Amino acid sequence: MIDNRSLFKTWFEIFLVSLKLGLTSFGGPIAHLGYFHEEYIRRRKSLDEKSYAELVALCQFLPGPASSQVGIGIGIMRGGLLGGIISFLGFTMPSVIALIIFALLIGELNVSDMGWIHGLKIVAVAVVAHAILGMAKNLAPDLTRKAIVIFALAVVLLWQTVYAQVGVILIAGLIGYLLYKEKSDDHTTYFKVPISKKIGLFCITLFFGLLILLPILREAFASPFVEMFDRFYRAGSLVFGGGHVVLPLLEREFVPTNFISEGAFLAGYGATQAVPGPLFTFAAYIGAVMDGWFGGILATIAIFLPAFLLVLGTLPFWDIVRRNGKMKGVFMGINAAVVGILIAAFYNPIFTSSIMEPIDFVFAVILFSMLSYWKITPWIIVLTGIIGGTLLSMM
């Protein structure tokens, strides 16, 4: 018999945690994974290190916003379909609301150069470094897996294409299979994804069905709302590499076609860098400029729907695969590659865009020490970053 009170408690906890992350997770997709690691893995033990790395690797394969997909996946594992929806809403809605308000009321205000934004970038340096050290200790303990980490780091940094991450994960999985296929991993946490395979197949079918059907409906009905939904759904379906990749794609979709002016687009681009949460919420700003608050909500649903369908469609089968003993070596290699990918992203763009002066590095070390050694909660680290960044801008 299902304990409804326990389920409601779980849903409420998922919402509170994801909302806190949605209000404090600055710095882009890789920084978000660092915040998730701190909150879900270190503090709440929602997943073990290996399962988290495998989920990250799965979401790197999928098009769309990887960090949002990881958050959705964790919500689904803990609270089923509604848990995934709640996790998505908590993490996404703060930035959606902020960007819709910005589009409606603020317009041309330039916030990208404010000191507190720079402080939040330095916070991201500390948070991601903390997550990487913890994951490296658990996922790359031997020399072979350390070599896979270095390989992944080098390829992703030196071959900066949207296919580099997928290629590295595939190669690392093959290396892991060849080297570790006879090794057992006794520390894998087994859990059942509360989504059936039938639902998974339906979601995958719906994902491809909408990709094919929406352009047909767009031509048949000539509705501005159908056209808007189609453009944003296509952007969310076909983008690999996260939010930084979708921004220029949206520019090509909406600026040359005069849906939004270049000045308004750039103002929204700056605002999106200044708010927490996923960069895909830039769609909310564009939608609100085009058609008010309704357009902002419609654009948000359209651009995130592919990510939701793909996570729901793949998770049931992912759990079956990860339970297969012959796949343990594959995941050992993939987990090490994920660490290398995170280190590469930590260097570029997080470190290179945040640490401009020696004093920035000193501040990052202080924030890292507060998080790692003094065990101070992340929201205090974020507040310290805002204050410190403001003070640094005055020097």
UniProtKB/TrEMBL annotation:
> What InterPro entries does this protein's entry cite?
Chr_Tranpt_l_chain (IPR014047), Chromate_transpt (IPR003370)
Which keywords does this Swiss-Prot/TrEMBL entry list?
Cell membrane, Membrane, Transmembrane, Transmembrane helix
Per the record, membrane topology reads:
Multi-pass membrane protein
Transmembrane region(s): 14-36, 81-104, 116-136, 148-179, 199-220, 232-250, 293-318, 330-350, 362-392
Q: Which Pfam families match?
A: Chromate_transp
Q: Where in the cell is it found?
A: Cell membrane
Keyword Cell membrane, does the record have it? Answer: yes
Keyword Cell membrane attributed:
yes
Mind telling me which NCBIfam families this protein's record contains?
A: 2A51
Entry's family note: Belongs to the chromate ion transporter (CHR) (TC 2.A.51) family.
The UniProt entry, under PANTHER family, shows:
CHROMATE ION TRANSPORTER (EUROFUNG)
Its recorded name reads: Chromate efflux transporter
Organism of provenance? Ureibacillus galli
The organism that produces this protein has a lineage beginning with: Bacteria, Bacillati, Bacillota, Bacilli, Bacillales
